[in-house]
Design a protein that fits this description.
The chain has about 300 residues and is an alpha/beta fold. The protein is built from ten helices and 15 strands. The strands form four sheets. Strands 5-6-4-3-10-11-15-12 form an eight-stranded mixed beta sheet, sandwiched between helices. A three-stranded mixed beta sheet has the order 7-9-8. Strands 1-2 form a two-stranded antiparallel sheet. Helix 9 links the parallel strand 10 and strand 11. The longest helix has 23 residues. The structure holds 2-acetamido-2-deoxy-beta-D-glucopyranose (2 copies). One 2-acetamido-2-deoxy-beta-D-glucopyranose (NAG) binds next to helix 5. Keywords: Membrane, Transmembrane, Transmembrane helix.
Length: about 300
């Protein structure tokens, strides 16, 4: 090899090393086209869907205007509204059973409950503690309420899961079992405010992070009262199941009005729907708009007012 050939060899060697180095350093750039949306993209998407414009387009009019609307218009508004996400949550985790009994939790930084000392009220257990157990595993203190179970005393279900044989409603009262079980039993029903006072979770000394509610029709009065008296003001995530009607009672204009008024109030308190899950068991054919719909919706919201 001549000296000149050797120099060319060394030059080529150095050039190929440089080429490899450039490829390694900028591999992200070359591979970018094949990658799914990065977290920054999702965050951007999240910010866009939180813009007032999008939310305003989904607002429910005032009760006076609603009362003037036709049944057809109410039906259309109700299903469109309740089934449309208003904000994006990037990290959604299932807590509890995959099927009935489990609920989603939004674990995005701005909405996630604090893993040290968060507090959860879980209304409607029906012997399924899967959500409650998972929230305790996540790090929360969980209070599980259900007046219709066989257990009629307070007990510790597991580490950090406290059971109370009480229900939730619009006022403190003793009520007949609405669910229509075997023997007519008197159930203790209280407001969320009463529970917070009872367990010293007052708004001033303890934040209530998550409220889950699946209470077969009581959700309307329970939530209306709680939204009105401020006991949900510090809540980060509110998840609940709506029941347009129960026990095969006919759907009236009032059924839709009630829940549209509730949804409007929920929105005005800062709660935004990020996902709504449909319970197949609630499917029905709606004569009003001649379409298949659902009588119940599992609505999942995050509170944009307490960022
Ligand atoms: C209700 O409907 C009537 C007749 O269509 C109309 O005159 C009235 O202005 C409406 N009221 C409201 C509050 O929209
Ligand atoms: C709750 O009730 C069930 C069914 O009656 C019973 O098996 C269970 O031991 C009870 N748990 C407690 C802690 O009382």
């Amino acid at each position: 090899m001549t000296k000149r050939q050797r120099l060319i060899m060394i030059f080529l060697l150095i050039m190929s090393y440089l080429l490899v180095a450039v490829l390694i350093l900028y591999k992200d750039f070359f591979l970018f086209q094949n990658q799914p949306l990065s977290t920054t993209d999702l965050k951007l998407h999240c910010a866009t869907s939180k813009s007032p414009l999008q939310i305003d387009a989904k607002l429910i009019p005032h009760e006076k205007v609603l009362r003037n609307m036709s049944m057809f218009a109410l039906v259309q508004l109700y299903f469109r509204y309740i089934e449309s996400p208003q904000v994006t949550c990037s990290s959604v985790k299932r807590k509890g059973n995959v099927q009935d009994g489990g609920w989603q939790l939004c674990e995005d930084l701005e909405y996630a409950p604090d893993k040290n000392g968060c507090l959860v009220y879980s209304y409607g257990i029906n012997n399924d503690f899967s959500f409650d157990d998972d929230m305790a595993k996540y790090g929360c203190e969980v209070h599980s309420f259900d007046p219709t179970m066989d257990n009629k005393t307070d007990f510790l279900r597991g580490e950090r899961v406290y059971f109370h044989p009480r229900g939730v409603g619009g006022i403190d009262k003793q009520a007949n079992d609405l669910v229509g079980s075997k023997d007519l039993q008197m159930l203790q029903i209280d407001t969320i405010a009463t529970h917070r006072r009872m367990f010293k979770h007052g708004p001033k000394n303890r934040r209530l992070d998550v409220v889950k509610m699946d209470v077969e029709g009581y959700e309307f009065e329970a939530l209306m009262t709680a939204l009105h008296d401020g006991s949900l003001d510090d809540v980060r995530q509110l998840v609940f199941e709506t029941h347009l009607t129960l026990n095969g009672r006919p759907l009236t204009k009032e059924s839709y009005l009630k829940f549209l008024i509730l949804l409007r109030k929920i929105h005005s308190k800062g709660f935004r729907i990020y996902t709504t899950l449909l319970n197949e068991a609630c499917g029905f054919f709606n004569e009003v708009d001649q379409r298949d719909h659902f009588l119940c919706h599992e609505v999942h919201t995050v509170n944009v007012n307490i960022l």
